């Protein structure tokens, strides 16, 4: 901060420069000759910046300095006892000081880039990085340079700030993976504006983190619904099938139609999970997202419709069957196969479905007319009325050679 104080006093032509943390000394007559109305108020501004920085609530010294400088400047600009010409003069001196200060900072960075060695010049996939590429970020730490691709940085930051054990938000500080040091606030700001300048699509989470000045507690408190939905999505689409398999079975058992599926114990688990991942995302939102919202109710209806249409497309899905090849009335070969014919989640049409007043209506005729507290919306254990079971058509017996 003393560099900024020095620039302020230089621009006011003060010969004997003083700083707030200097030892106390008596002023001589020659010292008083340095003071003009302008230098006096700049000295006042310097002292106020110094003490505002000391009582700042921020831990990072860059944020402390910024808050102290601009709150002190605003104190003068908002003072009704100063003339507008004087305020404008103080503001111009402050602006020129800022411009000089950041010019020196830029010069310092150029020197460091030329002087400090590059320790890491590959991305996290060990692909070589071009230091002049617009998507390459240079991180300078401890007299060393680290090259990162913007994609890697976004992944590192999103993984840290979306940390949600059991879907409860607990953001972590993004770390440099090569030395396990947290990114400073200045580094996070540089990354953010590098992303903006690159033209790359901005990360939603990172943008929300930026709006909270990279304060983890405020970010978590104000954006918990978004963080939770993203953490659910990451869990559903990135977790291995061994973790999600039991959840898929639970979901199928929660629907009055798909609970009639007889999934063979040898049916490939990875195939089953891959097919039902999009359905599972809706199921997890219903059960683990913020409760009592319109989104939860809408997702319940959509999941019910999609699982029902999935079932009606192939009622024998998951069954094992034997394919027999005969020649002249003799069996010469037989194969054990699984019925995995299905309709994709994204191809199940719901354009004509209107959701309103707790009902699901298709077209103009009410095909389904069941209130939310009816069993079709139960998570797992709700018992269905006999009338619903009677509607199911048992075509499974038509599968030749099928095994349960």
Features:
single chain; 404 residues; mainly alpha; 3 domains; three-stranded mixed sheet; three-stranded antiparallel sheet; 49% helix; elongated
Structural description of this entry:
There is one protein chain. The protein is elongated. Strand 6 and strand 7 form a beta hairpin. The protein has a three-stranded mixed beta sheet. Strands 5-4-8 form a three-stranded antiparallel beta sheet, with no helix packed on it. The chain has a two-stranded antiparallel sheet with strand order 6-7. It has helices at residues 2-11, 29-33, 37-54, 61-77, 84-115, 150-161, 185-198, 204-211, 216-222, 224-238, 241-254, 269-288, 294-313, 386-391; strands spanning 118-120, 136-141, 144-149, 320-327, 330-338, 353-356, 359-362, 402-403. It contains 14 helices and eight strands. Helix 10 (224-238) runs antiparallel to helix 12 and helix 12 packs antiparallel against helix 13 (294-313). It has 404 residues and is mostly helical.
């Amino acid at each position: 901060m003393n560099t900024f104080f020095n620039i302020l006093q230089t621009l006011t032509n003060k010969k004997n420069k003083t700083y707030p943390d200097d030892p106390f000394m008596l002023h001589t007559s020659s010292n008083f000759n340095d003071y003009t109305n302008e230098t006096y108020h700049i000295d006042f501004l310097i002292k106020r910046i110094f003490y505002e920085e000391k009582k700042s609530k921020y831990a990072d010294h860059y944020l402390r300095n910024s808050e102290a400088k601009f709150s002190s400047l605003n104190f003068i600009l908002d003072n009704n006892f100063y003339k507008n010409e004087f305020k404008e003069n103080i503001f111009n001196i402050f602006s020129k000081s800022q411009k000089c200060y950041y010019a020196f900072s830029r010069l310092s960075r150029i020197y460091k880039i030329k002087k400090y060695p590059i320790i890491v010049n590959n991305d996290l996939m060990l692909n070589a990085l071009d230091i002049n590429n617009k998507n390459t970020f240079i991180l300078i730490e401890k007299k060393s340079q680290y090259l990162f691709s913007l994609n890697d940085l976004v992944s590192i930051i999103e993984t840290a700030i979306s940390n949600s054990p059991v879907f409860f938000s607990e953001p972590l500080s993004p770390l440099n993976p090569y030395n396990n040091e947290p990114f400073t606030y200045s580094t996070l700001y540089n990354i953010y504006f590098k992303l903006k300048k690159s033209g790359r699509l901005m990360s939603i989470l990172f943008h929300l983190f930026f709006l909270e000045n990279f304060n983890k507690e405020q970010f978590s408190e104000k954006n918990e619904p978004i963080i939770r939905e993203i953490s659910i999505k990451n869990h559903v689409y990135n977790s291995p099938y061994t973790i999600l398999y039991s959840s898929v079975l639970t979901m199928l058992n929660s629907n009055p139609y798909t609970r009639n599926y007889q999934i063979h114990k040898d049916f490939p688990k990875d195939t089953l999970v891959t097919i039902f991942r999009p359905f599972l995302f809706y199921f997890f939102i219903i059960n683990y997202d913020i409760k009592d919202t319109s989104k939860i109710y809408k997702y319940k209806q959509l999941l019910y419709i999609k699982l029902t249409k999935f079932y009606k497309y192939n009622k024998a899905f998951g069954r094992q069957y034997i394919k027999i090849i005969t020649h002249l009335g003799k069996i010469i070969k037989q194969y054990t196969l699984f019925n995995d014919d299905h309709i994709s989640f994204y191809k199940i049409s719901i354009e004509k479905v209107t959701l309103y007043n707790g009902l699901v209506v298709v077209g103009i005729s009410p095909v389904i007319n069941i209130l939310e507290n009816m069993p079709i919306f139960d998570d797992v254990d709700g018992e269905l009325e006999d009338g619903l079971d009677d509607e199911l058509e048992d075509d499974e017996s038509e599968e030749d050679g099928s095994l349960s």
